[in-house]
């Protein structure tokens, strides 16, 4: 990707019910084979954002493998790719925080629903 002047980033998003979802971002990098004038223009005005979300049994890698993420990025878009919980990139859950107690009914109802 660097040879094409693209940069891949990973961002963690924590949900209210303690899942950690990984979101990938593909954008034009600075240098590394990218267009210098395009990089300068990109610094002046942020590119339009595209958010891609996979379907059932998919993940953010589907957009990279299929080529759509690269195509959009090379056309000047700031590409973000989400992952639903439970897939390869978003299967972490912190069960230690907010354990069930009479003073925390929200956590209690979540734990009951997991049984």
Task: Characterise this structure.
There is one protein chain. The chain is built from 4 helices and 5 strands, in the order E-E-H-E-H-H-E-E-H. Strands 1, 2, 3, 4 and 5 form a 5-stranded mixed β-sheet that branches. The N and C termini lie far apart (43 Å). The protein has one domain (2-114). By secondary structure, the chain is of the alpha+beta class.
Q: What's the count of strands?
A: 5
- Taking pLDDT < 50 over at least 5 consecutive residues as the criterion, the unreliable ranges are 107-115
Order of helices and strands: EEHEHHEEH
> Which structural category fits the helices and strands?
alpha+beta
Query: How many structural domains in the coordinates?
Result: 1
Write the layout of secondary structure elements.
Blueprint: E1 6-14, E2 19-28, H1 36-44, E3 49-53, H2 61-65, H3 68-74, E4 78-82, E5 92-93, H4 105-114
Parallel strand pairs: 3-4
Antiparallel strand pairs: 1-2, 2-4, 2-5
